[in-house]
Amino acid sequence: MSVHSIMMNINHGNLAGHEVLVDSWPEFKGILTQPHREVASDDSDFYTNMYAAFYRDLVAYWALLSSAVNWGQAFCIHG
Predict the structure, then answer these.
(1) Could you list the mean pLDDT of each consecutive 10-residue stretch along the chain, which spans 79 residues?
(2) What total of structural domains would you count in the chain?
(3) Which residue range(s) make up the domain with 36?
(4) pTM
(5) DSSP code at position 18
């Protein structure tokens, strides 16, 4: 999912239970969408726990992942 698509979906209110995390704004190095904690209720479901990612700096992306991802769940990252 491109950054443009993410921002367009946010502007139209169509993010389907996801929230967007960025390392900094507007000069971002990493963006991650994650399911709202209330929505992602099944720890074993890859499809419920889907993330989308885009990054320009791998270290910033890893920092974003380490604080955002619930490592106790089965999940899938698209990017």
Answers:
(1) 64 73 88 77 80 91 90 87
(2) 1
(3) 3-78
(4) 0.72
(5) E
